[in-house]
Amino acid sequence: MDNVTLVKITSNDLYKAVKNYLHNDLGMSSTINREYIDKVIEAAVGKRVEQLFNDETVIHRIIENKIAAVIAYGDKSWMGRVDRSFHAVVLDQIKKAVQEEVTKKLNISVTLDGKSLPGEIADEKNS
């Protein structure tokens, strides 16, 4: 079985690897510098992003997948903390709305030893 060694690659290491590839494998001039490489990468990424954003199907798929993930699992917010799922938030809101509506429409009369208590006293005894 082959042994695999993991190596941490810094941005400087990546720059050197790209530069060596351009010089040695592609035979490009040694005048290539970091700014040139950044421009090439920026242009390539910009072109790909433009292609993606011009295709509505891709955008809709990205949005649908994100919404489905938020509904199912919540959303990672600042510092990687996972917020409650959309489902849990909606359930809480429904419970609150139902509770408010029931409270508005519910009329409770309290009796003590067969006598009805006045509203204010009944409210104090219930709380």
Plain-language structure description:
The protein has 127 residues and is mainly α. The protein has a domain at 95-127. Helices cover 65% and strands 3% of the residues. The chain is built from 5 helices and 2 strands, in the order H-H-H-H-E-E-H. It has helices at residues 11-25, 34-54, 56-73, 86-105, 119-126; strands at 111-112, 115-116. The protein has a two-stranded antiparallel sheet. A hairpin with a 2-residue loop joins strand 1 and strand 2. The longest helix is centred in the middle third of the chain and has 21 residues, at 34-54. It is rod-shaped and about 100 Å long. The model has no long low-confidence stretch (mean pLDDT 75).
* Share of helical residues: 55-70%
- Based on CA atoms alone, the radius of gyration comes out at 32 Å
Instruction: Provide the residue-averaged pLDDT.
Output: 75
Number of strands: 2
Question: What share of residues are in beta strands?
Answer: under 5%
Please render the helix and strand layout as text:
Blueprint: H1 11-25, H2 34-54, H3 56-73, H4 86-105, E1 111-112, E2 115-116, H5 119-126
Antiparallel strand pairs: 1-2
Labels describing this entry:
mainly alpha
Task: Explain briefly what this protein structure is.
With 127 residues, this protein is mostly helical. Helix content is 65%, strand content 3%. The chain contains five helices and two strands; from the N terminus they run ααααββα.
